[in-house]
Amino acid sequence: MKAGPSSRDDVSGESAAAADQERLRLQIRRPRSSGSADAPDRRRLVFLVGLAVVLAAVLAWRLLPGDDARDDRRDAQAQAVASVENLMSFDDGEVVAELRSGDETALLTDEYAGKYVSSVRDSIGDLAAGSRLTVRTEVTAAGLVEVADDRVELLLALRVRSGTADNPGAETTSLVRVVMSDVDQQWRVHRIETL
Predict the structure, then answer these.
(1) What is the mean pLDDT of each run of 10 residues along the chain (195 residues)?
(2) Is residue 142 assigned to a domain?
(3) How many domains does the chain have?
């Protein structure tokens, strides 16, 4: 018997199908080479993401205050609180002695010292000496309004207790705007303004 073309085709058809399956199996297992069409897109994406991260870091470094700036602001605020509590608190007659000694003016800029001394002498000096007036000022809240390299403006909320030995007096609250200036690397009061 002679084998016909159909049996030969069946054998070669089966081996061709097996070869196709083997190629498909190898293609699925084989990772794409770096020369594939998606590789440049992936590299471009990685590059762009990296560039965005670097740009964000540079902008954050340039725009956000550094540790030194935060420390300066914190120092200015702490000095403003301490200075205002000291400048706006006194006991019976000590305000006159303090003005004479110049201790209080060490907290002030030279420009503001003269204005402060004359203002205190005019408004409370005689009253405090004659009536044994006592004033205690406490800063209850502080917030930055404006910040520059050598100048900081703050708003301070105050609780003021005033009275005499005969009359304990009352407690009031007020709000003041304080401008601090950096004088020889020390924060000093440049202006106090009651709002």
Answers:
(1) 51 68 64 57 81 76 61 86 88 61 76 81 60 82 86 90 78 91 91 89
(2) yes
(3) 1
pTM confidence score: 0.60
Backbone φ and ψ for 162, nearest 5 degrees, come out as -130, 150
Residues contacting residue 118 through CB under 8 Å, at least 6 positions apart: none
CB-side exposure of 85: number of CA atoms within 13 Å?
Answer: 12
Which pair of tokens denotes residue 8? 């030969």
User: Torsion-angle region of residue 114: left (phi > 0), alpha (psi -120 to 50) or beta?
Assistant: alpha
Question: Which amino acid type is present at position 166?
Answer: D
**Is there a contact between 133 and 92 (Cβ–Cβ < 8 Å)?**
yes
User: Domain containing 107 — which CATH number?
Assistant: 3.10.450.50
